[in-house]
Amino acid sequence: MTSLFPLSLSEILLVIIATTGLGCIISGRLRPDLAALLVLVTLGVTRVISPQEAFSGFSNSAVITIIGLSVITAALEQTGAVRWVAHHLAGLSGKSETRMIAVFMIAGALLSLVMNNIAAGAILLPAAVRVARQAQIPASKILMPLSFGTLLGGMATLFTTSNIILSGNLIAQGQRGLTMADFLVSGGPMVITGLLYMLFIGRRLLPARETAALTTVGVVDLRSIYQLDQRLWEVRLPPDAQIVGTTLAEANISALTGTTVIAIWRGHTAIFHPTPTEQLRGEDILLVLGREDRVTQLEQFGCIIGRNSTPGHHLNLPIELAEVIVGPRAPFTGQTLQQLRFRTKFGLTVVSLWREGRSYRTNVGTIPLAAGDALLITGPLDRIQQLAEEPGFIVLHTQPAEQLVGRQAVIAGVITLVVLLAATTGWIATGEAMLAGAAALIISGCITMDDAYRAIEWRVITMIAGLLPIGIALTETGLGAKIGTLLTSKLVVYGPMALLTGLFLTTVLMTQLVGGQVTPLIIGPIAISAALNAHVNPQAIAVAVAIGCSTAFLTPIAHPVSLMMGPGNYRSGDFLRVGLGLTVVCLLTLLIVMPLVWRLNSITP
């Protein structure tokens, strides 16, 4: 019987270091980028690999490709090129639920061919919410198909993080890297079968669920939109109230009681969106949002509590409302609104926070923000539009802005097409092509150097560069070959397709736990070693593993683009119910397509 044992000292150290690092990432005890750096340093210090090899991840072609692609994606967004495409694609959706699902899945897949999956989802999300609500179709019927469409599109292109990493793994082991054509012929059919599954089966399993807050702009009734009948209170300030003469910031009402001041009535004047520097006066009437037991705490300051008690005052407010999603890689995740000084910085008030189907209306400012949170905000329309420009915030609008194609958008589009053509034809190495394209976009003025730096997700780059040495260590120590031999001894007796299927399913399961960016760093070197040991085409195995990294349909945490779909008010079980069938469809498609497009028993150096 083939066994991993005995292991050398360096192999034992590698197992301990890798499992500890992954354990910290999965458990959330350490930030993924910090855990990756600790893995990198420990591998070098213990001499499992040389210091030069430990730091080689930062110069790896896969990392360079991802950096260049990040800048290209940001330039396409900033110039409005992809928003113009998204706007016109959304216009094709009509009012039919089936047609909307088809349009947004196809749009997500097409955009994912040339840009980051998360960026594609973020661009299409506001349009999807808007057209769904205009057609009075629950957003939950559209947003999950949209996220799945971007993931399916990622299977058919080289320009997905996991696919780039797998190509780099092949090159590191002396094999031919992957091309755009390799993924188009293998992953393209996944897009078609996945779309058909969602149109005929998956859409019937989608929940008909909407968040309590419909995104809107204009004159609205807070009671009907936010269902706040039991949460809105009028608080009158007698002249002798303790907080009279102080500013809202000095009164510290939010921190002391966990409530939010929405507006102030002063005589015949209404002050909506009061700033923290607004001074409170005697006979002011505050419109306060919060639970009764929290609001009544204001009585200790001499305030008088009531609900719609003053003649002439009612709760129909001419107030701008918007729903804002916390992006998957927002730089402020883990911080509270108070720590961000949100109200002071943006001039907006958060009245509610939605997370995993639950609404939080009390102490909202003290809740650490997480990816996928939906913030219901009030404030001036120009401030809401300014918030949309801030990294990490995805503002959902009901009214589409006019989409025009400017000169910069055309230049960005042309440069991107040239880069893609150069990379896919092999005229220039992919990493060099992406970096050259990023430089061309900066020189042409499509994006500034500062914005280019901001566009690069350094946490992701650090995590990938820090974990890439695990692959080097697996190869250098021989542990990857041992694990590969163990796999081949169990599976290859049933043929190359058994090995391919086993590696695909292992990848899919691991992706649900640690995501599609970490999984290829661990599975990739082992899968390629297994393929070489079994004399199975390593490029075919690498493509199957890469597709498995994008098969992130079973849990919302498997891929950041699914976390982004907060307005669908999904629960974890929704993804399992709909995604299980799609995963099976992808597996069956893989089993049919791979023998047709690949010579599985051939090895291409």
From TrEMBL:
Sequence ranges assigned to domain RCK C-terminal in this UniProt record: 220-304, 309-393
GO cellular component: plasma membrane
Residues passing through the membrane, by range: 12-28, 34-50, 62-81, 101-125, 146-166, 178-200, 409-429, 460-479, 491-511, 518-535, 541-563, 575-598
Database matches in Pfam families: CitMHS, TrkA_C
Protein name as it appears in the record: TrkA-C domain protein
GO molecular function, one term: monoatomic cation transmembrane transporter activity
Localization, UniProt: Membrane
Keyword Transport in annotation: yes
Membrane topology recorded in Swiss-Prot or TrEMBL: Multi-pass membrane protein
Record's keyword annotation contains Lipid metabolism: no
PANTHER family: BASIC AMINO ACID ANTIPORTER YFCC-RELATED (PTHR43652), RESPONSE REGULATOR (PTHR43652:SF1)
Keywords, alphabetical: Membrane, Repeat, Transmembrane, Transmembrane helix, Transport
Lineage top rank: taxon: Bacteria
Organism: Roseiflexus castenholzii (strain DSM 13941 / HLO8)
Lineage summary: Bacteria, Bacillati, Chloroflexota, Chloroflexia, Chloroflexales
A Gene Ontology BP annotation from the UniProt entry: potassium ion transport
